[in-house]
């Protein structure tokens, strides 16, 4: 990310800064962080979304990284949709 300050305070590592900025950007409902030897290795951001069935799927999904879309319907009507953004560090 280009939003990471040039001079990072000693309080956070670069991967921790990236993690905080990723979380701050979205409307996360749930976050899963995978660590390896104390370093952030993988981040999953879960977000519930509402969308109209007339909107194309490509307009719903963001254009970054890996994503997973889960849609639940009842009698042909969408009752819940969740997007999971997957970010590897």
Question: What's the overall geometry?
Answer: elongated
- Average per-residue pLDDT, rounded, comes to 78
Low-confidence spans: none
> What structural class results from the helix and strand content?
alpha+beta
Largest sheet: 4 strands, antiparallel
Total helical elements: 2
Helicity, as a percent range: 10-25%
Beta-strand segment tally = 4
C-alpha Rg (nearest Å): 16 Å
Strand order of the largest sheet: 1-2-4-3
Q: How many domains, in number, for the residues? A: 1
Query: Order of helices and strands, N to C?
Result: HEEHEE
Q: Report how far the terminal alpha carbons are from each other.
A: 11 Å
How big a fraction of the residues is strand? 35-45%
Describe it.
This protein has one domain. Helix content is 18%, strand content 44%. It contains two helices and four strands, in the order αββαββ. It has helices at 14-25, 57-60, and strands at residues 30-36, 39-49, 66-74, 77-88. Strand 3 and strand 4 (77-88) form a beta hairpin. The longest helix has 12 residues, at 14-25. The radius of gyration is 16 Å and the shape is elongated.
Topology, please?
Elements: H1 14-25, E1 30-36, E2 39-49, H2 57-60, E3 66-74, E4 77-88
Antiparallel strand pairs: 1-2, 2-4, 3-4
Index terms:
four-stranded antiparallel beta sheet; alpha+beta; 89 residues; 2 helices
């Amino acid at each position: 990310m280009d939003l990471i300050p040039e001079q990072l305070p000693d309080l956070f590592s670069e991967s921790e800064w990236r993690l905080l900025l990723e979380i701050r950007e979205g409307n996360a409902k749930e976050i899963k962080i995978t660590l390896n030897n104390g370093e952030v290795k993988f981040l999953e951001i879960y977000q519930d979304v509402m969308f109209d069935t007339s909107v194309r799927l490509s307009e719903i999904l963001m254009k970054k990284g890996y994503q997973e879309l889960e849609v639940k319907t009842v009698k042909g009507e969408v009752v819940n949709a969740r997007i999971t953004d997957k970010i590897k560090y």
